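Long-time lurker. I teach an intro course on protein structure, and each term I like to show students one example going from raw sequence to a predicted 3D structure in token notation. This year I'd like something fresh instead of my usual example. Would anyone be willing to generate the tokens for the chain below so I can use it in lecture? Attribution to the forum is fine with me.
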Amino acid sequence: MQRESGVRPTSSDMFAEDETMTRIRETTRTSPVPPALSKWLRRCLVLTSLVALCSVAASPVVSRTAHAQPSSTAPAPPWETGESRPEDLQIKLVTFGPGDMVANWFGHSALVVEDTRLETSRLYNYGMFTFDGTLLVKFAMGRLRFWAGEQPELRTYEIYKRQGRDVRIQYLNLPPESRVEVAEQLVWKTEPENRYYLYQHYFDNCATRPRDIIDDAFDGRLEETTRETAERTFREHVRRYSYRDPFMEFLMMYLENDIIDQPISQWETMFLPARLEHYVGQLHYTNEVGERIPAVREQVIYHDADDELAIPEHASPHWPWTLLLGCLVGGLGLGLAQWWRSQPSARAPRIAFGTLQACLGGTMGVLGLGLFLMAIGTDHRVTYWNENLLLNPPIAFGLLPLGIAVARKSIRARQWLRWSWTALATTGLLAVVLKVLPAFDQHNYQSIGLFLPISLGLAGACWWLEDSIEEAHSNDSTAEREDA
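-- Reply from a regular --
Happy to contribute to a lecture. Here you go:
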């Protein structure tokens, strides 16, 4: 591979910085929209997705650990050159525990090929991507390409050990000819023309790729034994792993549709490295003489991180907190409306009420616009037809200028504000009513608990306030006529 400057190749889990890695050569995607509009939409999408994705993008900056990949001058492994004997090869599944950063929460998987006679090993990592200026755009639009790379085995273990993460190794109990097939397959899959794949968190990631290779090595036995329905859905698993950060959990749950609420098989749960480790550890197969053989010959814990946070079996319910927050914000709107009602000519309550509208418009507008763009302009299957668009549609962004105008004493803006909140409250109630239909099965109760009380409270506040101000103006006009 040739060295190229200006790009930092990165592991999605380790965030490597090896200058010998190469830049991903993206092909130009044709767009049906004009270039200027396409560029504007991409910028909006990046802006609205920044909160959710900044931790992923910032991680390579925070973790500057070298994580080397063999360069173009590194010798080919002996199983590629034909020097390895089948009986000397070992195939290992390595599972790395969760880390502190968002991109590390779910852990990591890798495969290792070792020649015990020649004392040579390579770790094959499917979690590599290029960290450059287009990372956020590609990630937000579901077009981030990952790639498979080779790395030194022991050095990789030590890096994870220094990060305070578990390193667990399973020695696969494969017949010699299958070990050769796995080794050759991994070499082929790390060739420049074969290494790239489009990353999909649930369907194609650093754990599902090793899973498929292991399944092929055991003649489909892994998939065959994991066809039963799993106890948890994708959403429930993600909530378990994101429990440490309620805000990020809410954001991830808000952005994803009902695809992650459908029943899944045990096979599909192996998008999580820990589930892959679990089911491979349970796997047995029958050899040529009819003996039942365990798929894992030996399991070794290279490093046991005592301080690693344990993943709970069940996610904590956070909807009471979002409901409380929604009620507090809705109540704040009613309280400011009452203040303004009591002093209709005063400046302070008007500015306070308008400021609240502008803040809510900015926050809800960014979330609503981001959700809308991810629903129509990305390749993320899990963001299409999101029911949260009824709770927080993009029109919420209009509350920002309306709130500013209300603070500046605009009567027309106050009228538009009343109808805007009425529309939001109506669509929010519709989102709840439609739950009686089977098609509306998204588990978005956190979002309902947050946005619906806000919309109802602010809609009520605007109508209550408008009636009071109109009555006050009518009384003032009557008094002026009587004085005349």
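Some talking points for your students: The chain has a mean pLDDT of 83. Residues 445-483 form the longest helix (39 residues).
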